[in-house]
Design goal:
- It is a single chain.
- With about 850 residues, this protein is α+β, with helices and mostly antiparallel strands.
- Among the domains are: about 140 residues, Calcium-transporting ATPase, cytoplasmic transduction domain A, CATH 2.70.150; about 160 residues, Rossmann fold; about 180 residues, Calcium-transporting ATPase, cytoplasmic domain N (3-Layer(aba) Sandwich), CATH 3.40.1110.
- It contains 30 helices and 28 strands.
- Strands 10, 11, 12, 13, 16, 17, 18, 19, 20, 21 and 22 form an eleven-stranded mixed beta sheet that branches.
- The longest helix is centred in the C-terminal third of the chain and has 41 residues.
Length: about 850
């Protein structure tokens, strides 16, 4: 079992790694490089482009076509040989381009590694390439830095790290140095660990490297990517099976009919070189007639046309076969943040002056109402609300901006929610801060769980503080009630705790806001503040003065609101027999609340990552049928969930935007990456990219996928009825004693050139009405179902009858001019057969 670095104290970690605050020595470094290797992601030996291109020609249909081309070449039939080889190479090039583009995920993952790192070695700080880091190295990090390796924090100040690429959650994580007790703690809760590839959004720190290269969490994801095979799509499997059956049929037919031809010629006289060549040509023609040479190109055209339509519906397809697979999808595993929700923290409820306020409007757009009961209020007519939001704005570093007609925040999402609700209440963030400039700040830290500022106002010094209730309520001596400021009572505390629990039970993230007017003149405060910046004891004493005897202003409860259009999309899923599942790194209570609001949680099942780990493999596989929500999930969990669902026979679409999603995106039948928030790694591993990061776009893409599958099925009915009708026509003329009515080149012309035009026509057909009111087709249902097979049988017999009749008519009924040789009559009849075949198909 690997070391649980998060559960160790920082000095225990350093002792276990055999290092010290002065860093490793040069001698120790050389030994560790030999032991651990370089801090870089390893790659399997890549398949060369040439080998990848050659691998496109392994299917039975292609081999038969190659054999036909070689035989034609040997027999001097150059046009036939060139035609066949051209078609085969064209299909091979299409397959090569698709597979070559599909293998870029690991290269994108490597690009996310930090190029340089600041490390302490031999007691000196130095900047080195991050690939040279080894376990035991002491690294320094600061705001804006990318973490170069997994490391245990040993010192930090106000450290926040953006871990969205790894955990999928957009809110920066507060880091600390204390041990995190317990084994198998989710990555998102290991708050004393830094992970390679994530970024520091605030503060600074010192850490000891505990894992490098493939042993980091990023490395484990890289290993999963390498070991995860791309799943073949239902269409690929169906077409392969069809190709094998047709190939065997073509070989058997050519062999049997060649034997008949041999017997026929031998009975008429001795075999000659010309007669043997005629038999070979005849066999090649039959094989070519059976094999749908145009099928790979036709399917590609149909899929490509579908891709163009999907782009208009905000879905960008990276791998063409994925288009059709969407049509069979019956499960969508979706991330929560940004896909089902808006990824914009929004205050929904507030508590101040003994009253509860409800806030309307979602996202960062500063539009909405603040309701006290049924009455709309503003800060002008509600002093408790005014003090709550004014302090929230002053104790805040986030800005609200509008660009390209879109409202965005610059800073922390939690602070952004406070800025937005203040704007709704009539407090301009920029103006109010300008009127009350900040003089001093006690930054947020994971130890204190609060942030406090001192601002200059017309009335003197204003203290504003926000943070966790358990840290701030004990510092409060007063409360701002509906009648003004008074002493805080035990009854007030009970009431505050009751509302806090009510907000939390609604899956709201709750912040406490306090403040006071500070009884000190501005000049004296400035003098002490300057001294505090230089001397730790003075800073500690000043903090006690500032953060004592505070006035409790209230609570704000916020959440990440669901996307407005997702509810409608989930209703469409219900009608279409598609089951949505939420998989998130967020906490279970929050996930369940969002799932209930959206209508995802139907079976009542929700599991956390830790609960999953306690299940046996059999219990886990059984549980996937009744679990709609997964919370605090690791990359390995995501992959395991997708594999279990697929093992149950489901066609699974998996959404994701972070590095942590890449293995499951690659494993799923359809990997869906986010175009706006998605990392390059997730995009390269995915089959499809949503340009608007919207769950409803997946549902639209599924509708297109179903339509495309139906169009391909229609085309196959057309193609195979024509091919088999051609074969039956040739066979009937043979048994009637006539020569071969058409040659291989003519068959290729019909199968490839003419069929392609029909494919384009079928490819642009819009979805049939009610296509999303049906259940997904069964995975075991072949592309040619019973109805399609009956249609092929009837049409092929009809084509065979009318083409044979036209040939016999040209041979026996038409009066030929005197002087026409038998060869000329055969060519004339062949022309009639060819034209009739074109018209019939």
């Amino acid at each position: 079992m690997s070391t649980q670095w998060h559960s160790l104290k920082s000095d225990e970690t350093m002792m276990k790694l055999g290092t010290h605050p002065e860093g490793l020595s040069t001698t120790e470094l050389e030994e560790r490089v030999k032991k651990y290797g370089y801090n870089e992601l390893e790659e399997k030996a890549a398949v060369s482009p040439l080998a990848l291109f050659i691998s496109q020609f392994k299917s039975l249909l292609i081999i038969i076509l190659f054999a036909a081309a070689v035989i034609s070449l040997v027999l001097g039939k150059i046009p036939e040989a060139v035609s066949i080889i051209t078609i085969v190479i064209f299909a091979g090039v299409l397959g090569f381009i698709q597979e070559f583009r599909a293998g870029k995920a690991l290269q994108a993952l490597k690009k996310m590694a930090a190029p340089l790192a600041i490390v302490v070695r031999d007691g000196k700080e130095q900047e080195i390439p991050s690939r040279e880091l080894v376990p035991g190295d002491i690294i320094k990090i600061a705001m804006g830095a990318k973490i170069p390796a997994d490391a245990r924090i040993i010192k930090c100040a106000n450290l926040k790290v953006e871990e969205a690429a790894l955990t999928g959650e957009s809110v920066p994580v507060d880091k600390h140095t204390d041990p995190v007790e317990g084994n198998d703690i989710p990555l998102g809760d290991r708050n004393n660990i830094l992970f390679a590839g994530t970024a520091v959004s605030f503060g600074r720190g010192t850490a000891v490297v505990v894992a490098t290269g493939m042993q980091t969490e990023f490395g484990k994801i890289a290993a999963m990517l390498q070991n995860t095979e791309d799943e073949r799509t239902p269409l690929q499997v169906n077409l392969d099976q069809l190709g094998k059956k047709l190939g065997i049929f073509a070989i058997a037919l050519a062999a049997v009919m060649s034997v008949f031809q041999l017997v026929k010629i031998f009975s008429a006289g001795p075999l000659t070189t010309d007669s043997v060549m005629e038999i070979f040509i005849w066999g090649v023609a039959l094989a070519v007639a059976v094999i749908p040479e145009a099928l790979p190109a036709v399917v590609t055209i149909s899929l490509a046309l579908g891709v163009r339509r999907m782009v208009k519906r905000k879905a960008l397809i990276r791998k063409l076969p994925a288009v059709e697979t969407l049509g069979a999808t019956n499960i969508i595993c979706s991330d929560k943040t940004g896909t089902l929700t808006q990824d914009a923290m929004t205050i929904k409820k507030m508590y101040a002056g003994g009253a509860v306020y409800t806030v309307t409007g979602n996202g960062y757009k500063p539009e909405g109402k603040i309701l006290k009961g049924e009455t709309e209020v503003t800060t002008l007519d509600d002093p408790p609300l005014a003090h709550l939001l004014q302090s929230g704005v002053l104790c805040n570093d986030t800005k609200l901006t509008k660009e390209d007609n879109e409202w965005e925040i610059i800073g922390d999402p939690t602070e952004g929610a406070i800025v937005v609700v203040a704007e709704k209440a009539g407090i301009s963030n920029t103006t109010f801060k300008g009127e009350n400039p900040r003089l001093y700040e006690i930054p947020f830290s994971s130890e204190t769980k609060k942030m406090t500022t001192v601002n200059k106002s017309e009335d003197g010094l204003i203290v504003s503080s926000k943070g966790a209730l358990e840290m701030l309520l004990s510092e409060c001596k007063y409360i701002y009630s509906s009648s003004g400021i008074r002493e805080l009572t035990n009854g007030d505390v009970d009431e505050i705790n009751k509302h806090y629990k009510t907000f939390a039970s609604d899956a709201l993230r709750v912040l406490t806001i306090c403040g006071k007017k500070m009884e000190m003149d501005i000049d004296s405060f400035k003098t002490i503040a300057e001294e505090a910046n230089e001397k730790e004891p003075v800073r500690e004493d000043l903090a006690k003065i500032i953060e004592s005897d505070l006035v409790f202003y209230g609570l704000v409860g916020m959440f990440d609101p669901p996307r407005e259009e997702v509810k409608a999309a989930i209703k469409v899923c219900d009608k279409a027999g598609i089951r949505p599942i939420m998989i998130t790194g967020d906490h279970k209570d929050t996930a369940v609340a969002v799932a209930k609001e959206l209508g995802i949680l139907k079976h009542g099942g929700a599991l956390s990552g830790q609960e999953l780990d306690k299940l046996t493999d059999e219990e886990f596989i059984d549980s996937v049928e009744s679990t709609d929500v997964y919370a605090r999930i690791s990359p390995a969990h995501k992959l395991k969930i997708v594999e279990a669902l697929m093992r149950k026979g489901n066609i699974v679409a998996m959404t994701g935007d972070g590095v942590n999603d890449a293995p499951s995106l690659k494993k799923a039948n359809i990997g869906v990456a986010m175009g706006i928030t998605g990392t390059d790694v997730s995009k390269e591993a995915a089959d499809m990219i949503l340009t608007d990061d919207n769950f409803s776009s997946i549902v639209s893409a599924i509708e297109e996928g179903r339509s495309i599958f139906e169009n391909i099925r229609k085309y196959l009915v057309y193609l195979l009825s024509g091919n088999l009708g051609t074969v039956f026509g040739i066979l009937i003329t043979f048994f009637l004693g006539y020569s071969l009515p058409i040659n291989a080149v003519q068959i290729l012309f019909i199968n490839f050139i003419m069929d392609g035009l029909v494919a384009i026509a079928l490819g642009v057909e819009p979805p049939e009405p009610g296509i999303m009111d049906r259940k997904p087709r069964r995975t075991k249902e072949g592309i040619l179902n019973n109805i399609a097979m009956r249609s092929i049988g009837v049409l092929s017999v009809w084509i065979a009858i009318i083409t044979t009749a036209s040939y016999v008519f040209a041979q026996e009924v038409v009066v030929h001019p005197e002087g026409m040789t038998e060869d000329m009559i055969n060519k004339e009849a062949s022309t009639v057969f060819f034209i009739t075949l074109l018209a019939a198909r």
